[in-house]
Each structure stands twice: as structure tokens, then as C-alpha cells.
Amino acid sequence: MKLDKISTLALARMKQRGISLATLRYLLAHGRVEKKCDGARLVYLECEPRSGGRTLYALLDAAGEVITVERRVRRDDRHGTNQAAA
Predict the structure, then answer these.
(1) Position 62 pLDDT exceeds 60
(2) Domain extents for the chain?
(3) 17-49 tens-digit pLDDT
(4) Partners of 60 in beta bridges
């Protein structure tokens, strides 16, 4: 997928989150694409679980403009949230 336009919000988020333009280009070139019903696309890369489950994603509108970019850390909920029952 080619990088066309980036919204000012996406540029601000990239700066805040330390995501470079090269990283965004890599994400768009190699990431998995999930199409939404309104024409938007979610492009993401999932890292290996041993790296902390980090995911990098970008949200693009139907016209192909990058709306936002973020890194997410999935928290492993192996211990459960209902431990107070003991």
C-alpha cells in the first residue's frame, strides 16, 4: 500500500509516539490490512508475544489518507481480573 496523504492529527500522533515516516512506510508496505464497512482500512503489524505483544497500526480513511498511527501494548490477562473472589 502506498503512502498518499497524512492528516495533521496523524503527524502530531507520530511525533508524540516516536513513530518515524520510514516506520509508517514500512507498516503500509508490510502490514496486514483489515477493511472496514465504511471503506476505511486498519493496517497493522503484530510483533512476537515475547516482545511484549506490541502492535503498530495505522487507520486510513476510504480515500487513503492516514488518520492516526499508534503503538499498542496488549496486556496479557493470564492472572484474570476476578482474583478478589479468593
Answers:
(1) yes
(2) 8-75
(3) 999 999 999 999 999 999 999 999 999 987 766
(4) 41, 66
Q: Are 19 and 33 in contact (CB under 8 A)?
A: no
**Which grid coordinates are listed for 77?**
490477562
Whole-angstrom distance, CA of residue 1 vs CA of residue 41: 11
Instruction: Provide the whole-model pTM.
Output: 0.72
Alpha-carbon distance of 64 to 83, in angstroms, equals 45
What H or E segment, with its residue span, contains residue 29? helix 21-30
- Residue 34, C-beta contacts closer than 8 angstroms, at least 6 positions apart: 41, 42, 43, 44
Q: Do 49 and 74 touch, CB atoms closer than 8 A?
A: no
| 8-75: CATH number | 2.20.25
